[in-house]
Amino acid sequence: MKRRCAFTLVELLVVIAVIGVLTALLLPAVQAAREAARRMACANNLRQLGLALHHHHDVRGRFPYGYQVKPWPADPTVPAGHFRWSVLAELTPFLEQTAVYDALDLDYPLFGGRNQDPPNSVFPVNRFAVAQRVDLFLCPSDRFTRVYEDFGPANYVASAGSGARGGQAEKADGVFFVNSRVRFADVVDGTSNTAFMSESLLGPGGERERFDRADLDPRTMYAYVQESVTELTEEICRATAVWRTDRGAVWADGNYRNGLYNHWYPPNHDEPDCIRHSNPGWRAARSRHPGGVNALFGDGAVRFIANTVDGATWRALATRSGGEVLGEY
Fold this sequence. Notes:
Layout: H1 9-60, H2 87-91, H3 98-103, H4 124-130, E1 156-159, H5 164-167, E2 195-199, E3 209-210, E4 222-224, H6 234-239, E5 243-244, E6 260-261, E7 273-275, E8 281-282, E9 292-297, E10 302-306, H7 311-316
Parallel strand pairs: 1-6, 4-7
Antiparallel strand pairs: 1-2, 2-9, 3-5, 4-5, 7-8, 9-10
């Protein structure tokens, strides 16, 4: 009789079990390696933005405005707050985004007034540019997609400071705020000790407002407080019943919903951010990187800041001239 070679059922089950164990061991390692690569790519994006900030300062003698509030003589009906181009928009001449820069006209306000068709919309001269998705402005660990179809989104945000004075973006203690004209000489705490930019997560889009707390995702939605509020308090933020989903929807917009953040809350805070329209706001640095966020400092260095960073140290890193003694971070 010829001897026939074959696996027994027990041997087959053992092989399947071994393969399953190896897969269970290898997949997390592969995912961790991919996330490490994405985090490195994200840090490289911030480094490019840091170089652009230095180039902007060399050419214009100051860093970009956080955003501007000023009248537009061509049409006095346009609200002064509609002239709010973001830091990213002001950096486009100093980035390898020539097509976007060539299509932008920053002499116009970002949004029009009641005479615009439709009212309060982007001026026609800039609609193409602000709708462009710019990969440099997006972290590969996040959704990497639009929040709203007519606008390009952004994950990178400029620091307005510690979030003191109820989150006011006017005369804030960071580098980028309303009508800011900060120079290197103004960063008394030292550029290596001052955070200039960090990360933010994109909102889910879709329905702009939610009213059921069960639907709230504190990472990607924010508490939307009443228009009458001029300074935030913890009580006001906890009492809100409206949450917005348009976080980071417009890279060209410099307000707290899009272009600014501050250090009032720690990185990846487990409570939702709190914003009134454009200003004031308490908006945390947030990312999908495990354990923390990337932050760009004024000397061009990018550091990974853990979620567990001491709160006082985190706020001190946001001030340009606070004179605080920093702890470890």
